[in-house]
């Protein structure tokens, strides 16, 4: 049971990335990683969720989700090789983490997109007969992927997707991934002006739902930070 929990991401990590980085810019210097050499699960469950994501997500959001997988895996390989998690569970989380931002889902509920998206993911994975611990691990990580802070704990997959999304969205944790890795990932999954696209989505949710959890990151600071992503500007 404990091994399954760890594999599905149920291991507590400090919520503050500086703690797992030991107060440094990185644990070790990153090396170039290629899309072709990073393993991608191909189980029936993964294939079903991949098909669902490609159908439901706008193409820029799907590409972002895949970039988050590869950037997170590069961080895992280079910085945190001792972290125990399954690539399948992390990929499922990446594919579904922004499902709540689609036009259909954003207007289907009064809930913040992360929480509604987590519920959608939980229901989908249960329908696809994923192990309950895995489905719940994905849902929790999605619900908390914008729950940034310096206190308390979070699951392993929750922290990894936080760091990878901040990297792709705002250029945060820029010292954790090699420049050549960015170039290769973007070549396979182009950004398609993602910075302006996601900034627009943030503003749309904040307008529709002034109580949205996204406002905790700064009603203006967050969308402006996304729009002004200098690390990824050359690729947008």
Task: Report what the structure shows.
The structure is a single chain. Helix 3 packs parallel to helix 5 (87-96). This protein has helices at 2-7, 17-20, 44-56, 59-78, 87-96, 103-106, 113-127, 132-143, 156-170, 179-188, 194-208, 221-227; strands at 12-14, 153-155. By secondary structure, it is an all-alpha fold. The protein is built from twelve helices and two strands. Helix content is 56%, strand content 3%. The protein has a two-stranded antiparallel ribbon.
Distance between the termini: 44 Å
Beta-sheet strand percentage? under 5%
Low-confidence stretches are none
Q: Provide the structure class.
A: mainly alpha
Count the helices. How many?
Answer: 12
Summed over residues and divided by their number, the pLDDT gives a mean of 95
Order of helices and strands: HEHHHHHHHEHHHH
Q: What portion of residues is helical?
A: 55-70%
From the alpha-carbon coordinates, what is the Rg to the nearest angstrom?
16 Å
Number of DSSP E strands:
2
Oligomer: single chain
Shape: globular
Biggest pleated sheet:
2 strands, antiparallel
